[in-house]
Design brief:
The protein is mainly α and about 180 residues long. The protein contains 4 helices and no strands. The protein has one domain. The longest helix is centred in the C-terminal third of the chain and has 55 residues. It is rod-shaped, with a radius of gyration of 29 Å.
Length: about 180
């Protein structure tokens, strides 16, 4: 059996390009995940600056609550950072696996199909990696929302406290107690 009888050039090229579509999708996932990672790092740096700006010895309610918020947010951001790093690693590995699948299509053809199973296995592994990375990104997005909801709860407390303080100041009669 000749090589042309096994597969013609167009079929070989088509088979080699098929993983390229997934490689393009992987690149988009890597880009968006890298952007998310950068935003988490920026947020960590902002929180570090906020923590350093807090007074060392003050124990006011506001400072204690702000310290607690920063500690809470750092925990959420650390989880997100680990998830994003894992997803990126999986996406990079998937890209490598998909490129290998594309290359092994050509190699398989030159060996008259002896290793015809290899490109299929590599493509399946690469696609599975993309799926796993996407699942991790869903988990990371849920973690981001949970962290943001915790931060919103802190903001609600601050707004409620400041609103209550203003109301107390407005309710005081001017000039003393009960004078008209």
């Amino acid at each position: 059996m000749t090589l042309t009888a096994l597969l013609n050039g167009n079929e070989i090229l088509g088979a080699m390009i098929t993983p390229a579509v997934l490689i393009t999708a992987s690149g988009t996932l890597v880009l968006s995940t890298s952007n998310r990672l950068g935003r988490v790092v920026d947020r960590i740096r902002k929180l570090a600056d906020s923590a350093e700006a807090l007074p060392d010895e003050s124990a006011t309610v506001e400072v204690v609550e702000k310290r607690a918020l920063i500690a809470d947010q750092i925990g959420w951001l650390a989880r997100r950072l680990r998830l994003l790093q894992t997803a990126l690693s999986i996406f990079y590995a998937s890209i490598g696996t998909l490129v290998s699948a594309s290359l092994t299509v050509g190699i398989s053809t030159t060996t008259m199909g002896v290793i015809g199973w290899l490109p299929i296995v590599l493509a399946l592994l690469g696609a599975t990696g993309l799926m796993i990375g996407a699942v991790i990104l869903v988990h990371e997005a849920r973690t981001a929302v949970k962290g943001t909801l915790h931060e919103l709860e802190y903001i609600r407390k601050v707004v409620a406290r400041k609103t209550t303080m203003r109301l107390m100041n407005v309710e005081k009669p001017e000039g003393g107690q009960g004078e008209t």
